[in-house]
Specification:
The chain contains 6 helices and 11 strands. It is of the alpha+beta class. The radius of gyration is 20 Å and the shape is globular.
Length: 218
């Protein structure tokens, strides 16, 4: 597998520094699991960040600091980490970072109907501005023609699609902003399943706006 389309370096550097919100971090971490070249950028950024920390002068730590940290750990609520298994969705399509956000072991995905050939599953990840979820597009299905009033980052997990300009397959990431108006079309042969992070809403441009309005509200 060769990944041809990547997140911007800005996203990768924000992720490496720990400054990226959880919704976008889920996508970046999932991409890194499939893309050696972006992993190299991430590892380099983390190493540089570590060297910068080494150059910072140490500060005096209060004697009660350790006890304070331990007390907070004892009172913290730990989130359950779940593993996903579903024979209707090939497990090899789910890199490790994404599995922790999937339904609990043994439960099937409950896809939400968005329109003919379109299904969606919302994932829980904290962000003040972005939503993250899985979009399943049936083979040959055209996503309604649309633009964007905020950034949208889409990563292919299985199958593929074209948007009239480029083609995207497993591991590829497309970043759409307000300048992009397109109509993705799923490749033939298998469902196209994508991890999608949206900020704002999609802007319908065609006559089937009612479907896209449903699509843009997830």
């Amino acid at each position: 597998m060769s990944v041809s389309h990547h997140p911007t370096e800005d996203f990768l550097l924000l992720y490496a520094s720990g400054s990226l919100d959880e919704a976008n971090s889920v996508l970046i971490a999932t991409h890194l699991a499939l893309c050696p070249s972006c992993r190299l950028i991430n590892n380099t950024a983390e190493l540089l960040g570590g060297e910068l920390l080494d150059d910072i002068d140490p500060i005096e730590v209060n004697a009660n600091s350790f006890d304070y940290v331990l007390s907070n750990l004892e009172n913290a609520e730990l989130e359950k980490v779940s593993t996903f298994r579903d024979t209707s969705f090939n497990d090899t399509s789910l890199p490790r970072p994404l599995k922790d956000y999937m339904p609990e072991d043994g439960k099937k995905i409950k896809w939400r109907w968005l329109g003919p050939g379109l299904r969606y599953l919302s994932l829980k990840a904290h962000s003040k501005t972005a939503k993250v979820g899985l979009l399943k597009i049936s083979p040959g299905t055209k996503v309604p023609h649309h633009g964007h009033n905020g950034n949208e980052m889409t990563m292919v997990l299985s199958g593929g699609y074209t948007d009239g300009v480029d083609s995207f397959s497993r591991g590829d990431v497309e970043l759409a902003d307000s300048s992009l108006i397109h109509q993705p079309v799923a490749d033939q042969g298998e469902d196209c399943i994508c991890l999608v992070v949206t900020e704002g809403n999609l802007m319908p441009t065609g006559v089937i706006a009612s479907i896209l309005n449903r699509f843009s509200s997830f």
